[in-house]
TrEMBL record:
Residue ranges annotated for the SWIM-type domain, each copy included: 400-438
Protein keywords: Metal-binding, Zinc, Zinc-finger
InterPro entries: DprA_WH (IPR041614), WH-like_DNA-bd_sf (IPR036388), Znf_SWIM (IPR007527)
Keyword match Zinc: yes
Name the record gives this protein: SWIM-type domain-containing protein
Transmembrane portions of the chain: none
């Protein structure tokens, strides 16, 4: 599914003698300039921007022609963030230009798409060692063409999977913990040992001294590495990096494939790639956000929390809870709801949420999640019967049994749950039971 949105660019992005001018399609006001200044490590920054653009134009599973070339850029207080998803939605990339990486002033805050076109990619590739790299995100002037020349206008198909990916990735990432940190020399050797393109196996990386070793089985302390060739995008920034960090959820013997984040840190920049649990799985279908969206108050809470979001580098859940008069669990559920419109992301290096400005549409959660729609229909039809130990859900001519496990998750006898075993979120029957029981939705702390 593609949600077509029209963006108007003032002109193509170019690398001029005085610096890099990225054309934006707008933000909280028409064509804002929310940053103007230099990037302090130009060659590294150019490599990082190329990496994010490369992910946006790649399909790692069943490669095909590029679907989108327009990463999302956010200016927030003291940093810039560039984000993209691969065409297959199985890789999420983010480049953070940190305070030490920028020499300029963020004069406004906003989020927009930037036009990273082939001429700009070629120009970034030519940035030399002493070449300055000046970044201007959104010029103040507006050039209107008459008979002397046209206004440059570009229509960009923005995949609906990107917004659904934003909604899922931040919920999954909130469960991650740092698992390994290795120096760049060892990181370079580790990445060079990885299987090449076309490898679809699921591997596990285990800390081993100053490096990591690969194994074919999940063991405690490991990080899942599915489709190892997807980390190839990191190579361009390796020469400038100091460390490679790996993040992931808790792994035990027998764990199913899991998502993970791999982050290169130069000191001024951080480039991270978050990989889906398996190469053929896109984040847009993971269902991690569904449980948090079943609460009766989640839409109203999201409206309230949305008005309280500020442009601090991180979102403090406890501060929001105090300001809103809500408990922390309801605030986290509200953040998940806002995440269905891409309004929040999660930074694993800081273990905290961050803010984007994208239009909030309370109805998007329903439209993008058929399981949620199906669950509400079951509840409205009175199809859920609770008993002392489980619940019965009648769906057409079929009858399913839903049970609650000690950790608060549900199991179901339906074919969908039997196939996925909870790895892709709850089924509609479990969601319907949760709604009927009025259970507090489980949201990662």
């Amino acid at each position: 599914m593609t949600a077509v949105q029209t963006y108007r660019y003032l002109g193509p992005s170019v690398l001029r003698p005085d610096g890099l001018a990225l054309q934006t399609s707008g933000g909280p006001v028409a064509n804002p300039r929310f940053f103007s200044g230099f990037l302090t490590t130009p060659r590294a920054a150019a490599a990082g921007l190329l990496a994010v653009a490369e992910v946006a134009r790649s399909r790692y599973y069943r490669p095909a022609d590029p679907a989108s070339l327009d990463p999302v850029v956010t200016g927030s207080r003291d940093r810039l963030r560039f984000e993209s998803f691969s065409g297959c939605a199985g890789v999420y990339a983010r480049l953070d230009a940190l305070p030490a990486g920028i020499d300029g002033e963020i004069v406004a805050h906003g989020t927009t798409n930037v036009d990273v076109n082939p001429p700009l990619r070629a120009a970034l590739a030519r940035v030399g060692g002493l070449d300055p790299l000046h970044l201007s995100v959104g010029p103040d002037d507006l050039t209107v063409s008459t008979l002397d020349g046209p206004v440059v206008e570009k229509k960009v198909p923005l995949p609906g999977r990107w917004l659904r990916g934003f909604a899922e990735v931040h919920v999954l990432a909130a469960t991650f913990e740092p698992r390994a940190e290795i120096p760049v020399a060892e990181a370079t050797a580790f990445l060079r040992r990885l299987p090449g393109a076309g490898t679809r196996s699921v591997l596990w990386a285990v800390p081993a001294g100053r490096s990591m070793r690969l194994t074919g089985r999940p063991v405690p302390g490991a990080v899942c590495l599915a489709g190892a060739d997807r980390l190839g995008t990191l190579h361009g920034l390796l020469r400038y990096a100091k460390t490679l960090r790996a993040y992931g959820p808790t792994v035990a013997a027998g764990s199913p494939p899991l998502p993970s984040t791999w982050e290169l840190d130069t000191g001024e920049l951080r480039l991270s790639l978050t990989l889906s649990p398996e190469p053929y799985r896109g984040f847009s279908g993971e269902g991690a956000s569904l449980a948090a969206l079943t609460g009766d108050d989640v839409v109203d809470d999201a409206e309230l929390i949305g008005t309280l979001l500020a442009w601090d580098p991180t979102i403090e859940v406890d501060t929001l809870a105090e300001a809103a008069g809500l408990d922390a669990a309801r605030v986290r559920a509200a953040l998940v709801q806002l995440g269905t419109a891409g309004r929040v992301g999660f930074d694993v290096s800081r273990a905290a949420y961050f803010h984007r400005v994208l239009p909030y549409d309370a109805g998007r959660a329903e439209r993008d999640n058929p399981r949620l729609v199906g669950a509400r229909a079951l509840v409205e039809a009175g199809a859920v019967e609770l008993d002392a130990t489980a619940a019965t859900v009648r769906s057409g001519a079929e009858v399913y049994r839903v049970r609650s496990s000690p950790d608060g998750r549900y199991t179901c006898s339906c074919p969908w749950w039997v196939r996925h075993r909870g790895q892709r979120g709850p089924c509609r029957h479990a969601l319907a039971v949760s709604m009927t029981a009025g259970a507090q939705p489980e949201v990662p702390a």
